[in-house]
Amino acid sequence: MKAAVLHEFKTPLALEEVPRPERAEDEVLIEVEVCGVCHSDLHVADGDWPQLASIVKKPLILGHEIVGRVVERGSAVQSVQVGERVGVPWIQWTCGQCEFCREGNENLCVRQRITGVTTDGGYAEFAKAPASHVVKIPDALPSEQAAPLLCAGVTVHRALKRASIRAGQRLAVFGVGGLGHLAVQIGRAAGAEVTAIDIAEEKLSLAKSLGAAHILNASNTDVVKRLRGSGGVHIALVTSAAKSAYDMAFYCVRPTGTLLAVGLPAREISFPAILMAAGEIQIKASAVGTREDLGEILAMGAAGTVHCQVSTRPLAEVGEVLGQLNRGEISGRIVLRLRN
Questions:
Q1: pLDDT by residue (tens digit) across 54-67?
Q2: Do residues 331 and 200 touch, judged by C-beta distance below 8 A?
Q3: Looking at beta carbons, which pairs linking 279-285 to residues 24 or more positions away fall under 8 Å?
Q4: Where is average pLDDT lowest: 118-122, 218-222, 252-256, 262-266?
Q5: 297: closest CA among 155, 142, 90?
Q6: Measured on CA atoms in the order 219, 221, 225, 229, is the torsion positive or negative?
Q7: Which of 216, 249, 290, 333 could form a disulfide with 148 if both were Cys (CB 3.0 to 4.6 A apart)?
């Protein structure tokens, strides 16, 4: 099968013919239709996160927003049928037995397997995955729409759910990329007053079209002054991987408000403890989502509550796509199409 393979950090992916995956008895083999390209793929390929770099499989097929059809299933598989359309997210498998799994936080499982990191992902014509953790894609949801929801969508959905977003609150979304443009829609659906912040006018125009009440260009606007002038925001959701976005977002949060850390800068971030205490500001992080969270965001997609701004590209252009992503040139999400 054709696949884009990472052999070493910070080197271009190699388009190669590799063996088709051999599934185990509790796994399914999936013919990949599409696979989303996530900014995390870029960080994995460059070895930007030391904690993750140490567990990256090499050689590695990247890609953790996989949608395709089941073409084989192991003898132990009962929950999934051949021919069904399924998705494979970032978290490929969890143990179900550790403390976090028992608490309902399987996304923090200490023995989890990660698609496109510790196991091969979806930048390939075929992929395998445990049947217990694939998610069925609603019939009403096109594959190219479903793929970004498996990471970008579920991540911001879980973050906003954990922050208990509600109608009438002020939400600021820092970064209108693959995650941010979905966060704008989820916030709007919850009845929040959404402000979108970016430095690209094209992305801000997209946010406005998706329901943002206000848009602010951080390159020519004093964002902190504007947002604090209206009382500050109840929730500041940072989807950008820029440290400067966090430095700005913290000062926009009203007392008792919440800063949600979702974007993952390669550099460390910090906040002044005295101001956190003085304003009783909460800082919360969110790591992708559980299978329950996935079901919820896919249902929102099928109902039309959220719609991904998607363009498709062939696998052969994956190197160019990653380059555009690195330069911040992509509005919305790009998915690789492996099969028509």
A1: 899 999 999 999 99
A2: yes
A3: 279/253, 279/254, 279/255, 280/255, 280/256, 281/250, 281/253, 281/255, 281/256, 281/257, 282/256, 282/257, 282/258, 283/258, 283/259, 284/159, 284/162, 284/163, 284/258, 284/259, 284/260, 285/260, 285/261
A4: 262-266
A5: 155
A6: negative
A7: 333
